[in-house]
Design a protein that fits this description.
This protein is mainly alpha-helical and about 230 residues long. About 60% of the residues lie in helices and about 0% in strands. Helix 5 crosses helix 7, helix 6 runs antiparallel to helix 7 and helix 10 packs antiparallel against helix 12.
Length: about 230
């Protein structure tokens, strides 16, 4: 295995060692690490926010001839804050809980935004709102940055750690059984449609199909096991 396949590159992204985007993100990373209240959530946690950051940086590199350094910075700040202070649980009586969660994230951004970024709050907030699920804005109405953040936010289901992060994590946050979430994954993945060429190249259809096959195989294993196995 190549060293580049296992070596972490988050410090390089946060410090902008490639000089890809405008400035660097150390201040915001420290805010996330020391101030965010959702670091230990089962799904909407520190790992998820940094995974979205990592993917958005890859997308910024892919589109570096189409995006300005300032646009890339807005995108990466969005990635860090799009789930800031996510409560990690349902809101009783609320049909669209993400509407509340997005407001919480935007409130955190406004509280900690750097003076140099304050003028760009409307653009960054609009990108955070693009991740609200179920989606209120059709992908065809989003600009390139909006399509990137939406694709990056969806891609957790295709990561190697998806069983723990997605199945177990969402089950705990939604207060349902892991098997219920696992059963929903094939349908979710079958309808998964990425909005950008970057994401379609990074997550081609054969990868999505392989993940669907994995889900179906796991379900067969679980359903085939004798009931007594659960207690062993």
């Amino acid at each position: 295995m190549l060293i580049s396949e296992v070596r972490g590159d988050l410090p390089k992204i946060i410090g902008n060692e490639e000089q890809l985007y405008e400035g660097e993100l150390t201040f915001y990373f420290r805010i996330l690490f020391f101030r965010s209240r959702n670091l230990h959530n089962p799904y909407h946690n520190f790992r998820h926010m940094l995974h979205v950051l990592w993917l958005c940086h890859k997308a910024s590199r892919y589109y570096q001839n189409q995006l300005t350094p300032r646009q890339m910075r807005n995108l990466l700040i969005t990635a860090l804050f799009h789930d800031f202070d996510h409560p990690g649980h349902p809101h009783p009586g609320v049909n669209e809980p993400d509407r509340i969660n997005i407001r919480i994230a935007i409130a955190g951004l406004r509280r900690y935004v750097m003076p140099a970024d304050r003028a760009f709050l409307p653009e960054i907030e609009a990108l955070i709102e693009a991740t609200q699920y179920p989606y209120k804005i059709g992908s065809e109405r989003l600009d390139l940055l909006g399509r990137i953040i939406r694709d990056a936010d969806l891609a957790q289901a295709l990561s190697p750690a998806w069983i723990q992060q997605v199945v177990m994590g969402l089950a705990q946050e939604w207060r349902v059984q892991p098997l219920d979430v696992l059963k929903s994954q094939a349908s979710f993945l079958s309808g998964l449609s990425f909005n950008t060429r970057w994401a379609r190249e990074m997550f081609p259809q054969e990868l999505i199909q392989a993940k669907i096959d994995e889900v179906e195989q796991l379900l067969r294993l679980l359903e085939a096991a004798p009931a007594s196995a659960a207690g062993n």
